[in-house]
From TrEMBL:
Gene Ontology molecular function terms on file: lyase activity; metal ion binding; methyltransferase activity
Cofactor(s) of this protein: a divalent metal cation; Mg(2+)
GO BP, one annotated term: methylation
Record's protein name: Putative 4-hydroxy-4-methyl-2-oxoglutarate aldolase
Organism: Paraburkholderia rhynchosiae
Top-rank lineage group of the source organism: Bacteria
Cross-referenced SUPFAM superfamilies: RraA-like
Top-level taxonomy: Bacteria, Pseudomonadati, Pseudomonadota, Betaproteobacteria, Burkholderiales
Keyword flag Transferase: yes
Residue ranges that the Swiss-Prot or TrEMBL entry lists as coiled coil: none
Binding site for substrate: G101, E102, I103, M104, R123
Gene: ligK_4
Length: 232
């Protein structure tokens, strides 16, 4: 068995995942709604985008750390991930070569994996973007990877400048990807519904002619942009 320099396993097969019930509940909300109620944090850098704007993904994270340009650890993750998992790869934002392509994506889909998120490059973009398997990546490159450098599977990582632990909830859509810590998912879902209700009501009010938010003048005064008693 491969081990890290500290003597611990480089491939952690046993992780605690966010429950399927919570994944299903969270998948009903936009990544933006979840990010807002999570304190406007936990989103991956905007460089990590869906290959097609119609792609959506939700599921527990199987985390992967690789040396830039090497995908050996991703192959290990594909072998141990369970149906419904989302493989999330810390590729260091490197775009010098692709870490996955059509073959690996086909394997992932056939294995029941919910999607792949890579802070790095992919290739076979035409085929992948036209398919129904969700892939989020930082860019494209036709150059293939090496497969010879040890990495980590299911260890804490930072992908897209965001901390991610194995089993955390991953939700991605046209806006990008948000990460919700596993132990906080139930609370965030409850807040998300309240946020959605509020936004739905606000949009309905705008359509009825109430175009100016009631809070704007108060915040402008607090910021010193309006004097006390001054109105827009």
């Amino acid at each position: 068995m491969s081990t890290t320099s500290a003597g611990t396993s480089a491939i952690n097969r046993n992780i605690e995942r966010v429950s399927p019930e919570l994944v299903e509940a969270a998948a009903r909300y936009q990544a933006a709604i979840l990010a807002d109620v999570a304190g406007r944090r936990g989103t991956l850098h905007g460089r990590v985008k869906p290959l097609s704007p119609t792609m959506k993904v939700a599921g527990p994270a199987v985390t992967v750390e690789v040396r830039p340009g090497d995908n050996l650890a991703i192959h290990a993750a594909l072998s141990i991930a369970k149906p419904g998992d989302v493989i999330v790869v810390d590729g260091k934002g490197d775009l010098s070569c692709a870490l996955i392509g059509e073959i690996m994506a086909t394997q992932a889909k056939a294995s029941g994996i919910a999607g792949i998120v890579i802070d790095g490059a992919v290739r076979d973009a035409h085929e992948l973007a036209g398919g129904d398997f969700p892939i989020f990546a930082a860019g494209l490159n036709p150059c293939g990877p090496t497969k010879s450098v040890a990495g980590l599977v299911n260890a804490p990582i930072s992908a897209g400048d965001t901390a991610i632990n194995p089993g955390d909830l991953i939700v991605g859509d046209a806006d990008g990807v948000v990460v919700i810590p596993r132990n906080d998912v139930a609370r965030i879902i409850e807040l998300a519904q309240k946020k959605l209700d509020m936004e739905t009501a606000r949009i309905a009010a705008i359509h009825k002619g109430d175009v100016r938010p009631v809070w704007v003048e108060k915040e402008l005064r607090a910021a010193g942009m309006l004097a006390e008693g001054e109105a827009l």
